[in-house]
Structure formats: structure tokens, C-alpha cells
Amino acid sequence: MNGRDLILSRVRAAIAGSPPPVTPTPAINRVWEGDREAMVERFLDRLRDYNVGVTRTSGTVAPALAGILAGRGIDRLAVPTDLPAEWRPDGVALVPDDNLPHGALNAIPGALTGAALAIAETGSIVLDGGAAQGRRALTLLPDYHLCVVRAEQLVGLVPEAIAALVPNRPITFCSGPSATADIELDRVVGVHGPRRLDVLFVG
Amino acid sequence: MSTNFPTRAADGLRNTQQRRNLAKATNTIRGKTAKVTAELPDWEALREAGKAIKREAHAKLDQYLLQLEEMVTKAGGHVHWAADAAEAREIIVRLTRQAGTDQVIKIKSMTTDEIELNPALEEAGIRPYETDLADMIVQMAKERPSHLLVPAIHKNRVEIRDLFRAEMGEHGTGLSDRPPDLTRAARAYLRQKFMETKVAISGANFAVAETGTVGVVESEGNGRMCLTLPQVLISIMGIEKVLPRFDDLSVFLQLLPRAATGERMNPYNSLWTGVHAGDGPCEFHLVLLDNGRSKILADEVARETLHCIRCSRCLNVCPVYERAGGHAYDSMYQGPIGAIVTPQLRGLEEAGSLPYASSLCGACHEVCPVKINIPQILVHLRGRVVREGHAGKGEALAMGVAARMFGNQGALDWSLWAGRLGQKLLMRDGTLPWLPPPLSGWTLSRDFPALPEQSFRDWWQKREDK
Ligand code: SF4
């Protein structure tokens, strides 16, 4: 018998005669109950908690981005090929990631992308390779990630995010920059991937 | 080699540095997890949901596995079935050879430890590089992990610095022992490996039958590196990790980080479905591992062992783990969950002393995010150890160790308490039909009067408290 048949037959024998499965408790689909502004505040607070640089604007995106980048001293960015025109900050060289070799991407100091959605309760940014996000390597190899989140992309809680995501895309949740506590439980931020994450919240 | 908890625990007890590290670690994590789990108004409902989903997944496990296979294949991935560790090793070695490489990068995975993959790769001339910081430390030191989540908790910064200096070539020269410096050295050393290695091997936290989506939850970003940069990705997963629906992820993505590290969300979660053109590996293999899991499934009392999501919260509240240390369990699964998983995976004959490695205080059951009744399973396994004739000196030794751990009065309370809890399950009509040896000789011919529900000391204590 091959492994597949063997495993299936063992599993079937193991569960035969057991009581039928309990009706599964519906996944807990709690939704955000506070008002919208409280949700935004929660999100920005959670980001600050993770040491993420937070900027909020209700105006045009490009100048706000230029300001953040000047503050970080970054003048060269890898960007997805479909970066919205109104996100192009002055004074910064933009390198479209047209399937750049990993080595080339690695040599660029930062990346600028949008997001699929964001979660207030956990301060997470969710990327799925959709519009203005590029492939996963783009937000992984450069040392710095600047992410634009629009107000209408924000949801309150994790179940709301899961319900809104398209399963067969490559999905990455980022909740602050990478971190480790492996050495004597001292928390060190920025292990692999971008060592710094900034978020521009629009709305 | 059999797992002898009592002897190993005695070693752990003598290691004061380790005990200090562990006390600090478990204390810190305990505080954090308590805070963030209390913060969710539906935490209890989430635990119930987690348990119900796992139960349902396991009750129809054959169907869900087949659905998973179908969906992964449809999305361009390949599914392999491994009945035991040897078969799993064989599959992974073959796939790696096919990719024409002699090195692989690995993401923290207890399952690859369980099947002893690294020695098999090395034997086949393939060099495995662990990329999780702690696993890398443990690998460089040629040791074993001592905690599910912080595997190198037994090592201090000076030891780690010396290790890196010896093993990391240029990246280790002149290194200080400050954790940020050590971390930076690891980053530089590993970046090169991430860029040049063609094959990555990972575990998986879950896989969704409905969509074929596989997920890895992590912290350092080494996971994203392994899941994204290589051409070939091989993920191995115990068959119990399948979830029926994509929606179920919302339950586990809330339970796991909060219970494990006390974070509202861990830094990175990656979800992928087969292969994604132009993004990430062009070849994806999912290895489904049984290796004793179907046997656990067949035991109606112990089957909920398989609900475990490896958050390690039970380790952090366990008084025995805190004193004895992870190495006492001689397994990649330590603490309370290790005490029930290991004997079931490796056999009671080999690891029959582990179900005794507990004070049965119940703390593990109280905190488990999927509500596994670990004490009940421990007692059930003790019963099996006895019935199947594997009871030896282990139990007596375990009592001896307990005495050293808790002091004499503590050990007495412990054994009486354990006795009362144990007998609840064995008792019929207020008497005990049988007892573990050495009392079993006596109960062979007559029933033993059950111990009173409350010990005299408990009773006295309660009376005093009033
Ligand atoms: S048994 Fe429960 S608490 Fe322990 S590791 Fe598993 S899920 Fe976590």
C-alpha cells in the first residue's frame, strides 16, 4: 500500500464509530463596534506600539511621502510597476520592480507600496500582491518599507480581514517590523526583512 | 534509547543558570499572554471555537485531507503522503536532490525535528541551514531545543557570542555579546544564504482544505525569506493541522499569537496557495505526515492531543517544566504537551515515564487556547502505561524528583492531589478497581477504598482561611 492509501485507511479506521462531528461553532465573526475614528485611532496606536513611524494626511499623498522619506534620508526606492501616479514623491529615484533580480532588489535601500487592507485591533498591514503592492520580494529585501494605507482599506478586527481577503493570492500580514526575543528574551527589532516600517495613513 | 524523565529532570534541577533563565522567561511570557488574552471580550468563545473547529476537522479528517490535496494540486502544488518519519525523509531528500542542490534553508519546524530530517539530509550530502535565530544557535551548538518557542532559552549571550565567533566566519569576527549586535551578525550571515539557496524546507501552522492555502506564522522574517526567495519550497505538515474553511483562520490567527508570545499579532503571517506566477517559488511541495498521528486519533480519550497549535503556553505555566527544563523531556515537544504527545508518538514503552512528569495541577488545561484537557490525558496515559505493562521504576523515580522539586510537604500534597484526580477517572462505585504498582498487587484481589475528596491538609487550610 502506498503512503496515501495507508494514511487514509488508518484515519478512517481511527474515526470509524466515533460520534458524528459536533456542529462547528461558527467562526467567531465579531465586528468592530466603536465608531470609525476610534478605529483609526486604535490602528495608529497599535502601529506606534510596534515602533512603526506613523503619518496621517487628509491631503495629497506625494508631498507627505516626500516628507517622510526626507526624514529618513532615503532618495531611492523600489516600487511596484503599477504605482499610482499621485504617489510619486519629488526628489526620489523610483526603480520599478519589473522582475528585478533578487540581488538588485537587495541593493535598493527601500520600497514603497500600498496594501490590500489593514487591521485596527492588531495594527497589521495585509499585502496580497494586488494593486500597488508588487510581489512579495519587493517588501522583503529592501531595508525599509513605506506603506500607504487608505482609510477605506481599514477594518476593525481579524475576522473582518479574513472575510475580505481573496484566498488564492499570496498573502502577507505585517505587524510591525520583524523581531526576535531569542537571546535572553531581550526584544530586538529588525531581524530579517525591512528593519524599518513607516505607514502613511490617508484619510 | 528510552526517554528517562526522572534522571534527566534531576540534571535540570542541578542547572541553576537554566532554572534562572527559565523562571525569567516563563514569568515574562505569562504576564504578557495573560494581559492580551484578557483584552479580547470573546477570548473564551474563541477558545471554544478553536476546539470545535479542530474536533470537526479531525472527525472528517480523511475527507478534509483529500480536499486539501485536490485544492493544492489545482493551484499548481504537489502533495506527498508520508506514513512515517522514514518515508517523509525519503521524499524530502529525493525532492531536494531533484532540484540539484547540496544545501537547503529551513524555517523553524518541530515536525522536521520530529522526523530527524537534518541528519538524513547530511547523510545524503545536503547541508541544512536553520534560519530561525534560536534554531540556528541550537544547531551551531549541536544541541537540542529546550522550549517550543524559545528553543535556545538555556543559553546566555556570552555563550552565543562565542558560538557565532567560532561558526560565522567574517560575520563573527570581533563580535560583542549585545543581543542587537548578535542579531545583526545573524542577519548578515543569513542574507547571503537566503539569496543563494534554491530549496527551502518549512513546516506549516495550518492548511485550509477548502482553498488549499498553507500558512506559516513567524516573527523574525526568516520565514518570509524562505517562503519567497528559493525556487523550490517543500513544506511538511502533520495531518492534524488541516482546517476545514478559510474563515477558520480568523479564529486561529487570534488564538495563536496571543497565547504564544502575548502579542496581538506576531510580526509576520504568510499564506500561500499552490504557486503564484511571478511571485515566489515556482515549485511547491506539501508533505502530509502521519507518523503516529492516526494512532492518537484512534484513542478517544487522548485524541484531542491533536488539537495542539504549538503555542507553548502550557510550558510557561507548568511548575514541573520550569524546574526541570526542556531537555528533561528528551524530545522536541516539551512541557505538558510534550508529556502527552511524546509517549503517544514514540510509544509508551520508550517514553512511559513522561506522563508522570506532571504535578497534575491543571494550569496547562486552564490556559490552553484550544482547551486540551492535558491532566485528563496524562492520567489516561498513566493508566495505559500500567495496563500495557510498561510501568517500571519511572514512576517511583518521578515521585522522588517531585520531592526534590517541591520539598517534602509539597511532594506529599502533590501525590495525594494527583492520586485524587487520577482516581476520579478510575473509580467505580466509590472504590478503585485497580491501582498502579506497587499497590496493584494488593488491588488484584480486593478493592482499595478511594481517597477522600479532600486531603486533611486541604481541609485544614480551607478551615483556617475562613
Ligand atoms: S497543548 Fe495547548 S497550551 Fe500547550 S502548546 Fe498545545 S495548544 Fe498550546
From TrEMBL, chain B:
Ranges of residues in domain 4Fe-4S ferredoxin-type: 306-372
Pfam families the UniProt entry points to: Fer4_8, LUD_dom, LutB_C
Protein's GO biological process: lactate metabolic process
Signal peptide: none
Descriptive protein name: Iron-sulfur cluster-binding protein
Keyword terms: 4Fe-4S, Electron transport, Iron, Iron-sulfur, Metal-binding, Plasmid, Repeat, Transport
InterPro entries documented for this protein: 4Fe4S_Fe-S-bd, 4Fe4S_Fe_S_CS, FTHF_cligase-like_sf, Helical_ferredxn, LUD_dom, LutB/LldF, LutB_C, NagB/RpiA_transferase-like
Domain LUD, first and last residues per copy: 67-274
GO molecular function: 4 iron, 4 sulfur cluster binding; metal ion binding
UniProt domain Lactate utilization protein B C-terminal: residue ranges: 388-464
SUPFAM superfamilies associated with the record: alpha-helical ferredoxin (SSF46548), NagB/RpiA/CoA transferase-like (SSF100950)
